[in-house]
Design a protein that fits this description.
Elements lengths: L1 H44 L3 H4 L1 H7 L21 H7 L7 H25 L7 H17 L1 H9 L5 H11 L4 H14 L6 H7 L3 H21 L1 H10 L18 H7 L4 H28 L3 H15 L9 H5 L14 H11 L2 H4 L7 H5 L1 H12 L50 H21 L4 H18 L4 H8 L5 H26 L1 H24 L44 H16 L3 H20 L5 H22 L1 E2 L38 E2 L2
Antiparallel strand pairs: 1-2
Helix pairs in contact: 1-5, 1-6, 5-6, 5-7, 5-8, 8-9, 9-11, 10-11, 10-14, 11-12, 13-14, 14-15, 14-20, 15-20, 17-21, 21-25, 24-25, 24-26, 24-27, 25-26, 25-28, 26-27, 26-28
């Protein structure tokens, strides 16, 4: 009893000490959610009236299908059900300005309500922090998601079905009320009728029958009022198939759309689609019923919604919000693996396909169909944990390096080093899929920012003259001499190939080796590289610089591409993907210097260390000889890498040499000290506690 009381008092003291931090975090999350919502509303309302609600204009504009007398589906732009058209008819009398305000802020209101409903539907019990943070996080993610951003221009008819289903499925309402709201949702979006079998399979048979009856009644009402349109929608187009954009459009993330994009057509395609859709529906609904019986109703709704996306003849962007809800599923036994599935879903539902998967031929299909693939995975494959699993709320913990106590006698006004000392350094290998996702997203952002940086030719050329003047003053203006020495010589072709090949090959190879053999070193090194690259982006943005090959009248020779039209410089296939005036600092030199530091500190052989040192020297010679950079660009690259390692140490700390008594030394003073047998699992990390520590203070 006394021990229990002591534990309770200790828990209360910890909770009390964390209360201010929780309040600050909660306030920051709500502020972020509000800013995101206001930004999205402003993005819509600042557009001219004729361009504000572009998709909605096809419904209610002067020539919209709901305003012009005649059939709803005459021009094929209206894709809603006849019942949705019947509901929208009163809006045709609304003024565009007032309707725009109503539509925008009404959409925001629905997103907020949906966020609160989803937060309250999390399986109990949940921690107090989770209960407080769930709503603002859910609202922020939905506002950022592509389906909701598309909905701001298209309308609430794509959010309403989701909200109605969640209210009917999750709320403690009578069977009749639950069935009515789900039936109304199905009348607006027919594939939502799949929730009726889910209700039936979970024992709520009266609600299932009511949902089916409500759907039939609403559809019959629309048929009585709009018989021609109902026949067109349900008979001629078979639940709307063929309306709107072509079914093989990338916006149609359904199995039907995927098969059409793969080149199938006609009866073979329809037969295969029917078989696949039936299999996905059966397997997905059984999984959803299982999770509903386990008390995870929100996950059951998300799985069923993902089934609806996959088996629908057309699943347009604004109908894919179900996929985002699948983030609530818990996946993985290890604590470090828990974030992989949410990160994957959020990236797919908030970023373009090119940001998730490279557009390289062969794998571009994965990116183009990423929403569908994630929906299929959630419906049929992802092993979400049951609440009864021993890993549900107690995943295998991640082992961390022990913190050192603060130095005695340190003045309270002197900041502690590392500044982010509360972030502990894991000793386990990071999740590979998560690393690949973050690397891909980071590189996409890097390429986007570099391509968006100012590239005004006059400013870039003025900066180049400044660089040349400084080099003249320092007596290091060797670019033109060395460029002419290389051009036409036997080393010209080798330098050109070196410039385009080694820049990515060597750093990626080192990262792969460290991930497999030195995971702690991998975390340290990749963080420094990321910081250095971020600093380089700042340089590209603030100081656009014309490389030597693009400077008029100075006699430089572009060894790779020949004479240039300086008004439209050509750099081969990467011309449209890269900023031609992002030369300061040189990341070719920066990344090669990073490789040199890693090799010197971690390479097991002396000759490998020497190769590492030689690599930035050769890279500097190549960038100057091919007229792609100045000597000072190389200096800039070295500066950002030095800052990357320095900031990494200041923010996160650095490791020290291992205790000789604990075993053979396996690491440098600057970097992590873990040997080739680094643990792949957290449970194995205990083997390295004697050989690796992180300096904290």
């Amino acid at each position: 009893m006394a021990n229990a009381q002591r534990r309770g008092l200790a828990t209360a003291e910890v909770s009390g000490s964390q209360e201010p931090r929780i309040r600050v975090g909660l306030g920051a999350l709500w502020l972020l959610a509000g800013l995101l919502a206001m930004r999205q509303a402003a993005a819509v309302l600042r557009q001219p009236p004729g361009e504000r609600l572009t998709d909605l204009e096809t419904w209610i504009g002067p020539n919209g299908v709901l305003r012009v007398p005649g059939p709803l589906y005459e021009n094929g732009t209206f894709t809603g059900t006849p019942f949705a058209g019947l509901v929208l008819k009163p809006l045709t009398r609304a003024a565009e300005q007032s309707l725009g305000l109503f539509w925008t802020f009404g959409t925001l209101l629905l997103v907020v309500v949906l966020g609160f409903v989803a937060a309250r539907a999390l399986p109990r019990p949940v921690s107090r922090r989770t209960a407080l943070f769930a709503a603002p996080v859910a609202i922020s993610l939905m506002v950022l998601s592509l389906p909701v951003r598309n909905t701001f221009t298209l309308g609430q008819t794509s959010i309403l079905p989701v909200l109605l289903v969640l209210v009917g499925l999750l709320a403690h309402a009578s069977a009749r009320r639950s069935g009515v709201v789900i039936g109304l949702a199905a009348a607006l979006q027919p594939t939502v009728l799949l929730f009726a079998p889910l209700l039936w399979m979970t024992g709520r048979r009266r609600a299932a029958a009511t949902a089916a009856g409500t759907f039939a009644g609403c559809s019959a009402l629309a048929w009585a009022v709009l018989p021609h349109d109902s026949a067109t929608y349900w008979v001629y187009h078979i639940a709307g198939a063929g309306l709107g954009q072509p079914a093989d459009s990338l916006h149609n993330q359904s199995l039907h759309g995927l098969l059409l994009r793969l080149g199938l057509s006609g009866l073979p395609e329809l037969a295969l689609f029917g078989v696949l859709a039936g299999a996905v529906a059966v397997l997905g609904l059984r999984r959803a019923a299982h999770y509903a019986g386990d008390g995870q109703l929100l996950l059951a709704a998300a799985v069923t919604g993902c089934v609806a996306v996959a088996v629908s003849p057309t699943a347009w962007l604004h109908q894919q919000l179900w996929i985002l809800l699948a983030v609530v599923g818990r996946v993985g036994r290890r604590q470090a693996d828990r974030v992989v599935w949410p990160v994957l879903v959020v990236m797919v539902m908030t970023l373009s396909s090119a940001a998730v998967v490279p557009t390289t031929r062969g794998i571009h299909l994965v990116g183009e169909n990423a929403p569908l693939l994630v929906a299929l995975a959630a419906a049929c494959a992802v092993p979400f944990l049951d609440r009864g699993s021993p890993h549900w709320d107690r995943p295998v913990p991640t082992r961390y390096a022990e913190r050192e106590p603060a130095a005695p006698g340190r003045r309270p006004w002197i900041p502690s080093i590392p500044l982010l000392g509360f972030l502990r350094r894991p000793l386990s290998r990071p999740n590979l899929l998560l690393e690949l996702l973050l690397i891909r997203a980071g590189y996409f952002c890097y390429a986007y920012i570099r391509g968006s940086a100012p590239e005004t030719r006059g400013v870039a050329e003025d900066h180049a003259r400044q660089i040349l003047d400084m080099e003249v003053a320092l007596h290091i203006d060797i670019e033109r001499w060395f460029n002419h020495l290389v051009a036409g010589s036997w080393i010209e072709g080798g330098m050109n190939r070196y410039y385009t090949t080694f820049h990515f090959l060597v750093p990626l190879s080192l990262l792969g080796w460290m991930y497999l053999r030195r995971p702690v070193a991998y975390r340290w090194a990749r963080t420094a590289l990321a910081i250095a690259t971020l600093l380089a982006l700042v340089g590209f943005w603030l100081y656009p610089l014309a490389p030597p090959r693009l400077m008029p009248g100075l006699g430089y020779i572009d060894t790779a591409n020949g004479p240039q039209d300086l008004a439209k410089p050509d750099f081969g296939p990467l011309t449209e993907l890269s900023n031609q005036y992002a030369a300061m600092p040189s990341l070719h030199v920066g990344w090669s210097l990073w490789c040199a530091v890693v090799c010197v500190l971690l390479a097991p052989k002396v000759w490998l260390k020497l190769l590492g040192v030689l690599y930035p020297v050769l890279t500097t010679a190549v960038i100057v000889g091919t007229a792609n950079h100045y000597v000072l660009d190389a200096v800039g690259g070295a500066v950002v890498v030095a800052c990357g390692f320095g900031l990494q140490s200041v923010l996160l700390g650095r490791t020290r040499d291992p205790d000789p008594a604990a075993g053979p030394a396996a690491g440098p003073a600057m970097g992590p000290a873990v040997g080739p047998g680094d643990p792949a699992e957290p449970g194995d990390a205990s083997r390295v506690h004697g050989t690796a520590e992180v300096r904290r203070g």
